[in-house]
Amino acid sequence: MSISLLASINTRLRINKIRWLIGAAFMAAASPAPAAVESYDQSKAVTEATDRIKTHIPVKSEKKTPRYFQEVQRSQSLQPIGLLPVTPVEPIPPVQALSGQIKPDDEQAFVPLNRPTLKALITVQESLNPFAMDAAYSERISLTETLNRALSHNLAIESDFAGYRSQKYAYLAATSKFLPDLTSGYNLIGLHGSLPGSILGGASSNSSSTASSTNIKLPSHLQLLQAGFNHHLYQGGKILFASLEQKHRLRASRAELKASINDVLLESAKRYYNLVLNEALLEIRSRAVEISAEQLRLNVVQEKAGTATGLDVLQSQAQLASDEQNLVDQQSTRRQSAIQLAATLNSSFDQDLTAADNNLRKKRLIPRHVSLNQLLNVAIDNRPELKRYEELRLAAKRAIVVAAAPLHPQVDLGGTVYGVGAAHSPTSSIYLLNFSVNWTLGSLGTTDLANIQQARWQARQASVQAKQSFQDVFVQVRTAYDQSLAADKRIESASTQILAAEEELRIAQKRMQNGLGLNLDVLNAQRDRTQASINKAQAIVDFNIAQAQLCHDIGVISTTALTEGAPIQPQGG
Question: Looking at the whole model, is its pTM more than 0.70?
Fold first, then answer.
């Protein structure tokens, strides 16, 4: 008698209340309710980045180093590029100061920050404060407060921390594949018909009456429960090396987070110093307007007394107009620098930020006599970018094994317990243990071979990027080192220039009062005095930024390093 399959239902049981509760509990276990979103604390990002990254960077003293590092060493060794030989640079002769030259103490160089009064500024609109411009509130902040605010609220750090956490769970997901798979299910099957008894081990007969008596009638409903596991014992190293790949990518993501924090600290310091510079220039520009206005007043008085000409008055008016234009531009520039700083700090743009410092001082963060080679060694040990690309290189090597895994046989071990019985009746247990070895070569293995070659070239690309990161660090450290030296020298020259310009202005004014000088000499001296003050303020800010850049480029930048100096001592000192 033929078997007729009337219905096959593979779904959660909804027959009665007890079975419905069992199905609901099973659903809850398979799909847990989403957890409440936890409040974000960016201090966790700083804490994660503070711990030392466990990434080994190759050094010259090692017997066996990666190929890319050997290529880096060869590229930095002395070798002629063209036909001419490589020769050492000429030694510098001793520098002697000129007789009578003013030699200020440039290590103590500073520019006072005297916020000009509102009367000294030019109103651009009747309803706007000429200093705060479009802002409705004001706050004075220090460099330390700026750096702390950036660490706790900057959006770039928040974004990279989210990426790091995402990569962390990708690593956990990869390692979880070491665990076996659990399976369970319930089937309710509707049947109609019978089975020959011989299938189930009964006696067989050729007569129709005997055959009819040996047929076994099937129940109208059959329930099948199952629970089991399947463990992937071997997949060609796919699980192991995929986990190692994600581990290296997690470390690379952490190094990227550290690099992002370093970049934010540098950018915050730059924008704070830019704000301080523009406030110093604003005071210089306002003072220049006051001097030009006073000079115009004197020329008008002297013209009435017959000791000055109309040309002198016109020259003074032109100078005053030029200084007023520069002052208006500087008011806008100062406000723009405050807006840029607020963007870095992720604070309200309606809140005008001003520097809490009373002086723009030279701040040396790296000791003067630290050698360039020492700085390069510190950079190799501390730059997170080197660690990031080293981890990405190692991850790419692990990906080669993952790509080759499909060419290997797969070994699985599984076990299942079945409960079989008619509806509304006890079930009988059937136990199954399965050990399987499968070897499949899809597309004759050509696709997998192509994937292996792709992974190898990606690993080579990662090695080149790691080598490029070394070159970038060397360039950045040397550039910041040279810029710091140049800015340091400019402070000395600017200090000398401002002393000479002040003396020039004093002499020019005295000569004109005594009828020996020209009004044009006074105006030129005023311009020289203003430009000298600007040059000194710019030189100090350039030096401070160059020192901050050098701290960043050798990988030791931090709030403490930017405010108190980097913990580096000259070798042998």
Answer: yes
